[in-house]
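Q: What structure does this chain adopt?
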Amino acid sequence: MTTRRLADPASAARYPLPVDGAADWTAAGARQQLRLPLPALRAGTLLVPSLALPASDGADPPRHRWTLCSGDRAWPLPPVPSDPADVAAAPADTHPDVSRHVDCFRIHRGIEYPVLELDVDSATPPAGYLVAVSWRPFTVIEVTAPARHAGLAAAPPPRSQMTAPAAIAPRICSPTCVSMVLDLWRRPHDWLTLCDECRDPATGMYGVWPMALRAAARRGSVGAVETFTDWDAPLRVLEAGVPLVTSIRFEADELPGAPLTDTGGHLVVVYGAGPAEVAVCDPAAAEGEVVRVYPAAAFSRAWLRQRGAAYILPA
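A:
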């Protein structure tokens, strides 16, 4: 697992993991562009780019778009926020080397000289921003539990997604987790309005990672999506007093005590971890049962075995 981070000085100072420096923005007409050469990417790699832009003077953050390039080949992700017309106009995703997903790339054949391009629809460079690019094997066979204890003094204010209107309740784990973290930081917001903001216009999904970052950044929490293969960096995040919104998946009964029997993708807030147990707020639980603990070994497999993604949303 490797991550590159670029940020303005204020955002870097608030982020709980080391930032490499500032971004070198280049004007490209009415856009700002950032080019990030990457090392060779092996087959089986998951590549996750993220950008958070705080709202400026009450205006929404500008749209942005990531494109993976290699030679004369280019694989663009949908813009953030997306539009159904953008998706309809996109070329068919049939290239054998790379598959594009809503918020990440999967590398199926090795790429020797990859470059990530980030385009922001702004005539001037962003004053505030946090760029993070993570890559790791999509699947890790050997996963271990946390080697030591780390965590917040108390759980974030719990919230159950199941108290939302029935039409959306099963689908809003991501914005509900973001809401809990914003409540922890005492960032005023309306939960269901936040859910609406996290909904991806093109797909109707509420769990698109960059939309969650966008909604949090509009309320002053400038964060990132990162991927991990072990607990080393996540424990440092917890030791800095910042919870992790982790993306987990597990087969039937693989996570004892979970309100879901299985899931292909679900988000929970981790606020403590140790060799035996992981303390979470699980929004899929009923009201009054959101705060719970899971066996560390089982939770580590559910989180880190595939993808290992997490939102890191500082105060």
